[in-house]
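User: I'm writing a tutorial on reading structure tokens. Could you give me a worked example: one chain, its sequence, then its tokens, then a sentence or two explaining what the tokens reveal?
Assistant: Sure. Here is the example chain.
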Amino acid sequence: MLSFKKTKLVPANPPSEEKQQEVIEQIEELSRRENTILLFFDPCHLQHNVVNAKRWQPKGRNGTIQIKTNTGRKRINILGALNINNITTLTTLTEKRCNKETVTEFFAKIRQHYPENEIILILDNAPYNHAKYTTIFAEWYNIELFFLPPYSPNLNLIERLWKFTKKKLVHNTYHEKFQIFKQKTQEFFNNQKEYQSELKEMITKKFQILHTV
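And here are its predicted structure tokens:
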């Protein structure tokens, strides 16, 4: 029996299932280190525009709800580090480009937040993450970088937080002014405790394995 529904987008060339499982086991081993904070790091680029998403609305074409849109030319870059143990997130919101300078500034913020702990950052292979400038600063801040295999966003648990963030802030939601949009985004992260029950259901240590299409 068939059903008519959306397809699902996945990376074209994910690592093998064996490699993904190996990385998951490595992450689990890192999480057991004493006096260590394990953080999933990644920036989120949130455009000032509406994402057209499903919602309940009256049947029939004439019942379709219309929502205003913006130009989408401005965006907020959110640098985030997710602590999976207590589902808390350290964030920086900026209109600056994500580059080695903004990333290392955020590393300093992480070190200041966790002054006494060993820190391991799980992150992807963006060029600014691999830059020599970045890796030197990480070593200086005594932050260990654990790079995920290419094309494996399923292994970076902060991606689930970004999906939730977009759902709350831009799915079928219109913010007329960029300043209002920026304020609402900051309020969302300032009040993240309000969403703890939802986030705990979504963000778990149960990793998804991507299968070859």
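What the tokens reveal: The CA atoms of residues 103 and 174 lie 30 Å apart. Residues 30-48+73-202 form a domain with the Nucleotidyltransferase; domain 5 fold (CATH 3.30.420.10).
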